[in-house]
Amino acid sequence: MPSRSVKIVNSLKSARGQEFLRRRAFPAAIPFLTLAFWAAFGEFGLLMAATLLPLPFLLAPLKAASQAEKDEADFDGLTGLLLQTALERRMDAQMAHLTDVGNATATFSIKIDGFARLRENHGDQTAEEVLRVLANRIRSALRSKDIVARSGDSAFLVSLDPVPNMDLETAIQMANRFQASIEESIPLQMASIYVTCSIGFCLSSRLNRPSATAMIQGAEMAMSEARLSGTSNIRAYTADMGRKVISRRKTQSEAARTLQKDQIKAWFQPQISTDTGEVTGFEVLARWEHPERGILAPVQFLDVLNQTGQMGELADLMTRQALNAVRAWDDAGFHVPCVGVNFAGDELRSPTLVERIQWELDRNELDASRLGIEVLESVIAGAPDDMVVRNVEAIAKLGCNIDLDDFGTGHASISSIRRLPVKRIKIDRSFVTNVDRDTDQQKMIAAIVTLAERLDLSTLAEGVENAAEHAMMSQLGCAHVQGFGIARPMPFEDTIKWMEDHKAKLGPAIQIGQKSG
Ligand code: C2E
Ligand code: CA
Ligand code: CA
User: Fold this and answer.
1) Are 112 and 153 in contact (CB under 8 A)?
2) Whose Cα sits closest to atom 46 in ligand 1?
3) Where is the GGDEF domain (predicted)?
4) Count of domains forming the chain
């Protein structure tokens, strides 16, 4: 048992003890100290007392100011959340006694999907407002002792106060809670915005020696893993994730050589008419059919192909496979009016593009109207360069259809749309999500459809995920729909069976329609 005097000394050493000494005990003792100095050293003592005793009071504000500056440096000016370094310090303190008392904790890395694009499309001010709203939402989903920080432009870190019962189930529930609150509509001045987020988390029980750095690394690794599977995913850190990261790096260098190996294939996603329900086309989406890792989405290889200058080859490959598919559908008795191929900005600058497209059409004896070219709105926004304009015009002159992809995200001016021979706009998924329930979304779609009608353009809604969104898009006058609610992208081999099933489903519906009409 510590003695009473030891306890008093200890309590005086603590921060509160020192504050007590500085504010109360020391000033009270000044007269006594002055007398003691005078008694011991005479006039010289008096001089010393007058010079030295006020010093602690003069220096205290300086110390307080530097502490305030330090505190300020710990916080993010925009969201008011801690910064990552400050979070790490607090986590270390929190975790020091973790295993002694049998508690566990979890760290979450939360990343807003596509935030750079949101900033590009809506501007800095809106992006900052969105971050502030999301920071508040995360904070209000936490208890007072949990710690949250902003890390990087559009990511957050959360570390929970250690508790005895922090297990996988509880962590998943927490992640779901963060995700649900982040993905709710964000009301802004003009309209609401929807964002999705990817979350990775690391449980301290999964690490041999949990430390702040290890927990954050684990959570961030899990978050990167979640992002690889698309948007709005949640992943838990597992010990083999480190190995996967190494294997992924290998995959990327392999991707650079993969086009030659015939592993990149065109997959097909159907587009249907909201009027008749009939198939009006398919969009071609590239998939890497990897012998060990399964089917990989473009996000895992497009960057590498771009960096190694192979986008042209990809476009050729996709066009070839797209037109082969049209030929095969025709031969099997299925009429698919048009197949759409995506072209990156760089590829649209190729001086030989038009000839190559013409050659592929001729080789398959197909009319040019059977091929559509999808050009991103961002490519023609502002002042599209001469080569792009020349190529797009020449492709349209051949008779191919030009679709403006991701419409509503790239700020193309109406005059640039008019200048180019665009036939149809593909309304971006961000306007379609929740359109059945959100009146702001409905107003945006109604405005886009009216604009398209006035400009004599057709419309297609992307990312239609369910029957309710499909019905609303149809009601709002959008001519075509595409999305998981109709079908996911599929390999060529599955397309004929899908069209047969679709036709069978459509048959009775059309008959009912005809009887009642
Ligand atoms: P995109 O052109 O906007 O293609 C639509 C993307 O949305 C596809 O992703 C598709 O799988 C996905 N999607 C379709 N319906 C839904 C839905 O209902 N919900 C959700 N959440 N997503 C849906 P994917 O295949 O991963 O392609 C991503 C992007 O990669 C494409 O976006 C396109 O810009 C690019 N891309 C794909 N293939 C090619 C290609 O051959 N060449 C070029 N240059 N770019 C390509
Ligand atoms: Ca597209
Ligand atoms: Ca698109």
Assistant:
1) no
2) 342
3) 103-239
4) 3
| 119-169 tens-digit pLDDT | 877 889 999 999 999 999 999 999 999 999 999 889 999 999 999 889 999
Is residue 514 one of the residues assigned to a domain?
no
Ligand 1: centre distance to CA 278 (Å): 22
Is it the case that residue 53 has pLDDT exceeding 90?
no
Domain match, 268 and 361 both: yes
What's the pLDDT score for residue 7?
A: 42
State which of 295, 342, 481 you would mutate to test the pocket of ligand 1, scoring each by most atoms of that ligand within 8 A of its C-beta: 342
Ligand showing the shortest atom-to-Cα distance for residue 300:
1
Answer positive or negative: Cα dihedral of 229, 230, 236, 242. positive
- pLDDT exceeds 90 at position 5: no
pTM over 0.85: no
Question: Of 260, 241, 254, whose CA–CA distance to 292 is shortest?
Answer: 254
In a domain, 504, yes or no: no
What ligand has the least distance to the C-alpha of 460? 3
In this structure, are 271 and 222 located in the same domain?
Answer: no
| Tokens coding 177 | 């809670």
Quick one: pLDDT at residue 98? Answer: 78
Tell me the C-alpha to C-alpha distance, in Å, between residue 328 and each of 306, 333, 339, 364, 368: 30, 9, 12, 10, 16
Interval 475-502: pLDDT, tens: 999 999 999 999 999 999 999 999 999 9
Per cent of the chain over pLDDT 70 is: 81
Query: How far away, in angstroms, is 285 Cα from ligand 1 center?
Result: 6
The answer to whether residues 58 and 103 belong to one domain is: no
Ligand showing the shortest atom-to-Cα distance for residue 269: 1
Three-state secondary structure call for residue 190: coil
Average pLDDT value for residue range 25-49 = 65
462 C-alpha to ligand 3 centroid (Å):
6
Q: Provide residues with CB under 6 Å of ligand 1.
A: 269, 285-286, 297-298, 302, 311, 314, 318, 342-344, 405-406, 429, 463-465, 483-484, 489
Residue 58 pLDDT class (50, 70, 90 cuts): low
> Is 261 in the same domain as 194?
no
Residue closest by Cα to atom 33 of ligand 1: 342
Q: Which residues contact 356 (CB under 8 A, 6 or more apart)?
A: 316, 319
Atom of ligand 1 lying closest to residue 231 CA: 21
Domain ranges, residue 455: 249-498
